[in-house]
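Dear H.,

Thanks for agreeing to be a second pair of eyes. The structure we're designing against is below in token form, covering all 779 positions.
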């Protein structure tokens, strides 16, 4: 007989009865939707969860129950896949704790990110994956040498197509104009096209030859250009022993799809992996590309029946916010949910305990309103979906296990403000947060912004007005850790040429920035580097601050002489007083450089590092179990993207203007000679059509579709942002705001995001004070 935990209950020894009790109490700590995952016994299951439903909590308990129920161990395991390393660390800790409570060994599961899993598979069979385990991983952007060289090589071999691009919409043969167009094509249009299509096509599993099979009705044969650029890029990767993230997934698939025709008696790598894997649980499934899903489907399949998969995919299609820069179209997860629903294998987690009901009502209203008003692009013939899956958030039942679920609101719970301008906006946020912290210092608050420039503006204005009164933590600046390669480069350049005033000044600026030496007139110090570094007895005596700075620099130079090259970057990182995660990122940087230079010379290190700084997105090591984002009485300033998965008592959403949310696609004036579209967006839409098996759109249709995808994603981002709030959701669109956030001082009249007037109409009590010029101004 089976109990609700799925374990047999007859004739059990005392230990196992005790464990069964624990399993039962673990299961009953879940709310109904979560229990559906916990009760999974095998097969495919889709779980569509609303924000705050407790996906990770539910999945961690379900994992522990599955490990107990099926007696999993290190040779027959549950694989848990999540999107980021910090999410992986988080869920791992939760599952471990449950297993400890159940007195079960820890070997029954592993947690991976998708790429970590793919790399483990690809690396285990290098001859089948075609990937060299020593290859260097790069994340090139459009300025990277790989992309630039691919463009140059393509130009050399495709003069006719290039000529057609140069002619553009029209061309009168004027020489300066020709030169200008050449430069724009070489340095902007083609690198942008290459970077976009390579990522889009490759992560959808399309090779250059697949793109060539399709011809769209467009004047430039954009897909053929894309295929050519992509082919050059693949050649470059191979020649230089580099790989990118998509290569890992493709390599893993090559391993798993290898068919052992010649010797069917021997098991294939696929069989071996499948025997090892009991089931796959995937979190954030809305963010996976079709190729990543295919990988998980193969791994979770029964070795004798590919259609029988032990696969649980948990996600929220309404929080898909990566689809405009990856092919992770939310359509894929929605389709998975639909197929599972037809088989009665869809669980919907509709209850969420995070927010006050006023906030839930606002989020539900916004979702429905947007679907009604932006359901379909006008005149579109391409099949398309509304921005959101219709799924309302419901408050939890009164007996819910979560303490203080659906907490009482702060004031009205929802506030809609119309400040005069963006400066007044930040002033209001500061005042409000200080008052709230004064009332209860144990509460948390965040300002969620659309761009890093907005984040910098908010942090700067907050510190200008309230520096002494409140602690501000700007995530963008500290967390991107993008400063690390740049700072290390400045110090290494100084070590290479200490007598260069420019390098000395850059190194000193880094030291000042890290508050290791006092701020002073650096120009005076670097006039005579020799005298500053090694003053002779005849030189005028140095001030104490200068002496301190000089000592720092000479210590660095001594280390250069005494340490082997591979220890140099870790030493510099240590000297710069980096914290734990920054040190780990610096170590990763050091390893990467050593791998590429074989520790040959400082010059070689500098060359590689310069390239990383100029044209790569070097991925930092993420902090595990980090509480820095939600410390009590701190205002966290963070982008909406980065805020996904987090929550705060009070959430401030300023600058909700139409030109940002939803915004619109933009053709830079420089590129307008080609037409009213960008080649990269058109190519992206065309590749999506290939992946989804739609008719290939022409230029105009492709551009319109790209715009629609962007609009839908911006609105989902707003929904993610709104659903981060527990007790107060403070939203505003100022009457006056900048067009470009690089110049926030140039403000003028700006329309609010269309959601704002709709919210004001639906929730009039939440409209707080102030003149609402937006309602009267003619735009
Ligand atoms: N069964 C439960 N008992 C107690 N607390 C719970 C339970 N389920 C969830 N919670 C709490 O609810 C909060 C939200 O849970 P979680 O972060 O797992 O939600 P989520 O679905 O991943 O949210 P989102 O999708 O919006 O990021 C957490 O603080 C978690 O501890």
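And this is the sequence the design step returned. I haven't edited it by hand at all.
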């Amino acid at each position: 007989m089976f109990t609700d935990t799925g374990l047999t209950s007859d004739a059990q020894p005392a230990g196992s009865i005790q464990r069964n009790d624990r399993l039962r109490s673990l299961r009953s700590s879940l709310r109904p939707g979560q229990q559906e995952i916990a009760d999974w016994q095998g097969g495919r299951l889709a779980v569509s969860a609303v924000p705050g439903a407790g996906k990770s909590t539910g999945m961690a308990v379900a994992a522990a129950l599955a490990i107990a129920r099926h007696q999993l161990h290190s040779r027959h395991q549950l694989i848990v896949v999540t999107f980021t390393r910090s999410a992986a660390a988080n869920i791992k800790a939760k599952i471990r704790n449950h297993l400890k409570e159940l007195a079960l060994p820890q070997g029954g599961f592993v947690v991976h990110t998708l790429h970590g899993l793919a790399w483990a598979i690809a690396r285990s069979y290098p001859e089948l994956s075609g990937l060299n385990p020593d290859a260097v991983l790069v994340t090139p952007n459009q300025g990277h040498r790989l992309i630039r060289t691919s463009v140059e090589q393509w130009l050399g071999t495709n003069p006719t197509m290039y000529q057609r691009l140069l002619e553009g919409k029209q061309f009168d043969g004027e020489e300066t104009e020709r030169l200008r167009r050449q430069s724009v094509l070489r340095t902007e249009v083609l690198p942008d096209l290459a970077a976009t299509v390579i990522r889009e096509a490759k992560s959808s599993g399309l090779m250059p030859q697949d793109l060539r099979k399709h011809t769209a009705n467009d004047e430039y044969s954009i897909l053929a250009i894309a295929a050519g650029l992509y082919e050059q890029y693949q050649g470059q990767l191979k020649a230089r022993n580099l790989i990118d993230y998509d290569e890992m997934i493709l390599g893993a698939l090559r391993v798993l799809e290898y068919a052992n025709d010649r010797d069917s008696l021997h098991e294939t790598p696929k069989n071996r992996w499948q025997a090892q894997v009991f089931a796959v649980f995937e979190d954030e499934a809305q963010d996976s590309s079709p190729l990543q899903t295919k990988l998980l489907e193969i791994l979770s399949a029964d070795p004798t029946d590919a259609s029988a998969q032990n696969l649980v995919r948990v996600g929220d299609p309404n929080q898909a916010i990566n689809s405009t820069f990856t092919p992770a179209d939310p359509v894929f997860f929605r389709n998975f949910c639909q197929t599972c629903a037809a088989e009665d294998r869809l669980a919907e987690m509709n209850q969420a305990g995070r927010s006050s009901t006023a906030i839930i009502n606002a989020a539900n209203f916004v979702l429905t309103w947007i679907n009604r008003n932006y359901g379909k692009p006008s005149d579109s013939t391409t099949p398309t979906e509304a921005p959101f899956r219709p799924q309302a958030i419901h408050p939890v039942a009164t007996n819910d296990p979560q303490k203080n679920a659906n907490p009482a609101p702060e004031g009205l719970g929802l506030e809609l403000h119309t400040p005069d301008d963006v400066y007044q906006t930040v002033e209001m946020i500061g005042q409000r947060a200080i008052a709230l912290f004064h009332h209860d210092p144990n509460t948390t608050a965040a300002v969620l912004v659309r761009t890093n420039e907005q984040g910098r503006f908010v942090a700067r204005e907050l510190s200008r007005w309230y520096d002494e009164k409140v602690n501000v933590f700007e995530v963008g600046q500290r967390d991107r850790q993008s400063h690390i390669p740049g700072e290390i480069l400045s110090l290494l350049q100084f070590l290479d040429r200490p007598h260069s005033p420019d390098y000395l000044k850059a190194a000193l600026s880094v030291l000042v920035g890290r508050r290791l030496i006092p701020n002073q007139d650096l120009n005076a110090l670097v006039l005579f580097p020799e005298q500053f570094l090694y003053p002779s007895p005849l030189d005028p005596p140095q001030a104490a601050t200068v002496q301190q700075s000089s000592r720092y620099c000479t210590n660095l130079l001594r280390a250069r002489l005494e340490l082997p090259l591979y220890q140099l970057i870790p030493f510099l990182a240590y000297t710069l007083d980096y914290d734990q995660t920054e040190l780990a990122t610096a170590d990763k940087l050091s390893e990467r450089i050593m791998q590429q230079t074989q520790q040959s010379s400082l010059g070689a290190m500098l060359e590689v590092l310069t390239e990383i700084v100029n044209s790569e997105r070097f991925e930092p090591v993420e902090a595990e179990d980090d509480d820095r984002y939600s410390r009590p009485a701190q205002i966290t300033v963070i982008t909406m993207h980065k805020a996904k998965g987090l929550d705060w008592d009070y959430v401030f959403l300023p600058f909700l203007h139409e030109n940002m949310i939803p915004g619109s696609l933009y053709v830079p004036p420089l590129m307008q000679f080609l037409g009213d579209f960008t080649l990269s967006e058109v190519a992206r839409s065309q590749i999506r059509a290939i992946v989804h098996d739609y008719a290939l759109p022409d230029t105009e249709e492709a551009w319109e579709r790209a715009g629609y995808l962007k609009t839908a994603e911006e609105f989902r981002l707003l929904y993610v942002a709104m659903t981060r709030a527990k007790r107060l959701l403070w939203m505003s669109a100022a009457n006056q705001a900048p067009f470009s956030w690089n110049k926030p001082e140039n403000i003028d009249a700006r329309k609010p995001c269309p959601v704002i007037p709709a919210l004001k109409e639906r929730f009039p009590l939440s409209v707080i004070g102030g003149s609402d010029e937006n309602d009267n101004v003619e735009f």
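Two observations from my side: The chain is about 50% helix and 10% strand. The mean pLDDT is 89.

Warmly,
E.
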